[in-house]
TrEMBL record:
Keywords: Membrane, Transmembrane, Transmembrane helix
Residues making up the signal peptide according to the UniProt record: none
Transmembrane segments: 114-135, 141-161, 173-193, 213-237, 244-265, 271-296
Domain of life, per lineage: Bacteria
Protein name: DUF389 domain-containing protein
Pfam family, one: DUF389
InterPro entries: DUF389 (IPR005240)
Source organism of this protein record: Rhodococcoides kroppenstedtii
Amino acid sequence: MQNLRVISPADRTPDVLRMLDGTAGVATVSVVRGASVTPAGDVVDVLLARECTDAVIADLRRFGLTHEGAIALTSVETVLADAAREAEKRAPGEPDDAIVWDELIARTREESSLNATFLAFLTIACLLSAVGVILDSPVTIVGAMVVGPEFGPLAALAVGLVRRRGSMIRRSLLALTVGFPLAMVVTALGALAAEAVGWVRPDSIDDLQQVDFIYQVGPFSLVVALLAGAAGMLALVSSKSAALVGVFISVTTVPAAGFAVVAATVGSWRIALLSAGQLGSNLVGIVVAASIVLLLHRRSRRLRVN
């Protein structure tokens, strides 16, 4: 279930209530007249099925409530009410198959911001992957995969492409094109420092046995990226956040970046190029698969409505 809190100008509240009364998936509606001070108006609290949320928000937008009022959306995990169960039965479709576009856009926009936190996590993940390469440690590589925040801007890029939002596309590309080079430069400086003190030898990546899969580019590299991108977007649109961990440890985006840096600093340019190719194929595959999932979701929704 979803909870909508709406700030509505008093003259528009009757129209809002009539719209909600005619929506099959609405379970409960509460109104507190004049409760909102800024902006001035009524507070309408709505509990409704997830399947109907996107349509209800679209109707609320037509009343101009995003400009002269406000709409807040939160997910509700547990509701003990017969009205809620009846609303879910009346609502068309299944909750996990419904996309709440405004929620998805807000989540991906936040996670694709180029800020100090994003850069710090990406840099730490690249440094961890470099250590994992030097130590031939798959456990450390998996740790780098989990720490890496790159799926956020990749998902936002897919949403921007499908929804044709140029601002989201630019925001995501900025995070990726600035974040990865910066993280790789810092990792290169760390690798060179380790080589200077003798922690890394020029032949340190010649006999790797456990992590050499990172730079081995092949058809299955793209297959894994496509599957991970699809699973990641499905996890986002269905609010199954636990599945995202599996996505993080399926693709070798950050490890490939770290491997490329280590290989370049020791002069293994062939491996560096292969690792860069692995990085590129993973990034493209994730975005393509995530975009396809969103397109299929939107198409299936239209077919159900028609």
